[in-house]
Amino acid sequence: MAEETKPTPETPASDEAKAATPKPPAAEKPPAAAKKPKAPAIEDKPFTEFMQQHFTPALQEALAKQGLEDVELKFAKETIPLAGAKSSEECWQVIGNLQKGKRQFNLYFVDEDINGKKAFSCSTNGGVPSTIESFMIDERKSTLDLLLMYTLQRLNGQKWLSRN
């Protein structure tokens, strides 16, 4: 024979009993914690501030970790040096001198924006670069880490950091 079970006070017998159970009012819920505003990313800072305070020192440190101690980095707005070309247009550049000026590289920021057009050139023995190459053209958004990685990769491609 089947036994009947009687509902206990802890378990309501039906949906009606569930609906009759009082729910705590919304006012008693603890208030949601106010979200702290995120600090803006360093890449969102003004261009010159980002380059002077973050990129140039980070590049200097990254090159030192690669064993290059005699690196001079300069961030300046200058004309683009190119053999055989007369350019009066100025753009922001990171100019790096290695081995007491025997090797020089330039990173050009044509649009005065880290996400804008960028180019790279290098020269040896104090000469003027013969070519300017596009730099980071496939990246939609540039970050400090990406700029450092691509710069080191490009210098390593010249075999200026280590022999392959």
At a glance:
The protein is α+β, with helices and mostly antiparallel strands and 164 residues long. It has one domain.
Describe the model.
This protein is of the alpha+beta class and 164 residues long. It has one domain. It contains three helices and five strands, in the order ααβββββα. A five-stranded antiparallel β-sheet has the order 1-2-3-4-5. It is elongated. The relative contact order is 0.13. The model has no long low-confidence stretch (mean pLDDT 80).
How are the elements arranged and paired?
Blueprint: H1 15-20, H2 47-65, E1 72-79, E2 90-98, E3 103-109, E4 118-124, E5 133-134, H3 144-157
Antiparallel strand pairs: 1-2, 2-3, 3-4, 4-5
Helix pairs in contact: 2-3
